[in-house]
Amino acid sequence: MKNIAVKKAKSDAPSSLGMILLKGRTFIALILLFIFFSFTAQNFLNPASLLLIAKHVALYGILGIGMTYVIITGGIDLSVGAIVGLGGMIAGGLIDEGLPLQMFGVNLYFNVPAICLIVILLGALIGAFNGLIITKFNVAPFIATLGMMYVARGFAMLRSNGATFPNLVGSAELGNTGFEFWGGNVGTIPVAAIILIIIAIITAIILKKTPTGWHILSIGGNERAAKLSGVKVNKVKILVYVVSGACAAVVGIITASQLVAANPSSGESWEMNAIAATVLGGTSMAGGIGTIGGTIVGAFVIGILNDGMVMCGVSEFWQMVIKGVVIVLAVIVDQFQRNMQAKMALQQRSSK
Asked: How much is the pTM?
């Protein structure tokens, strides 16, 4: 009997080792990418380059956090990139032109905190519309958010007829200066990174330590069972899209602040970066599984991969191909891990 137990332990060892490697695949990929680009990309380890990478990682991380909530419930949000552009344009318009009140013949100007709040509320409202369309009209998340992507991008273009709002420094007389702070640094730390840390801590606590987080996870695991257990599925689904829209609006503010200008095309294809960071971070496209910490690691992988390829002079077209391959491989590996876990669980049950 003892020999049998020893043989069984040895046979289980490769499976256990493989599972450990699968679970740590994103962190391993991050280390390998960092080492690779340190040798192949000129100035990759330059402090200025690392600071730029950190800013990009923060943007992808914030978008990814909202996407994580959505994908855990079994959904998808393709509108986040367009909300980034629209959010920046709304912020830029309020700083540059104010809010025209034609019936009174005046323009109302807001201070920067109020502008940021307006933009975030707008992003949350768009997210709420996505959630309502999906839950009340039973529209597939892919279709609902694809449509909203075009709507938001169209409104971003309409806001200035496709033009850019440049030089968003505001005016002391109007009380709307200080917008560039959100894209700057506190000492050597990017403000975007600080915002990412704050959002990550809050959303991680909600996901792991509160009933709302349990509801989000349970809906993705088994929506019917969650509904039967009393979870208000539709309200939770609307909530996750609200979070996703608000996160995208925050990124829109930071992006416009970093450029000190608002461009209606900002955030194009960033929904792919958000999805890639989320899936690479271990969130299952099937729903029910995901962590905020994993998404942050995934954002680092995408940020280093993007900027590393640029520094190496890789064609923009090849960059798109590589990112597409990364997303597909991440989903394949996730499915392989799920199958492996199910097989190991079945073996454990049969051994008892």
From this structure: 0.92
